[in-house]
Amino acid sequence: MTLNNLLWQVVQPSQLILIVAVLAAVCWRRPIGRKLAGAAVALVLAFGLLPVGRLLIAPLENRFEIPSGAARVDGIIVLSGSEQVELSRFRSQPQISDAGDRLTTFLVLANAYPQARLVHSGAFESQIARTLLLGAGIPPSRIVFEDRARNTCESAPATRELVAPTSTERWLLVTSAAHLPRAVACFRAADWDVIPYPTDFRSGPMIFSLDVVRNLEMLDVAAHEWLGLAYYRLRGYTDDLYPAAEPAMIQP
Fold first, then answer.
1. Could you read off the pLDDT of 154-165 as tens digits, one per residue?
2. Which residues contact 141 (CB under 8 A, 6 or more apart)?
3. Which 8-state DSSP code applies to residue 60?
4. CATH for 65-199?
5. How confident is the model at residue 117, as a pLDDT?
């Protein structure tokens, strides 16, 4: 786990609400404690019951449409993020999270385009993905595993260096729909116009839900991606804060 990941686990919205609640309990005998308790309740009601997370994540997930069937696909990239490294080591068996649609969509596309070259990108999760994807029947000669990138913007140049795509090749980029704008920005910064292929959607047609845990989870994901877009742009890792689809990229 990187320092950035550890820091995010502490400061993500749901954790901040928990911290406020704990401080309220610690300081309960003081006036500030009751104010913190009221703030914690208000935050849970606002972000756990109101569709704030759903409203924040929807623009990210809807930024790119699922491409219609293309006549030619030269390569398919899937970004890591669904593999659970520590749990897989503990159980001695590959384990994936609820972002596992990244890998299942990748497998479906690999079968749909049997001539396409395949890439899995991500350093920490590479061995788990190797076991899963080769075990699912992908020939070892057809797929390569990029195992140096520690984050999304490292994946783009590392993968490009690994596969050396030509300017006329058409490559699909598979990742979670909410993560796709940030991923596309990174690949464009690496001068690679991949075709975005969203999967692992979190938001649907239903706006209001009493599922507090699910609502807070969507808030965390949305906050992570919006902040990630801003951070990458401010650091100069990307050239576009909120990339949009390019018509030429989605034509068959």
1. 999 999 999 999
2. none
3. H
4. 3.40.50.620
5. 97
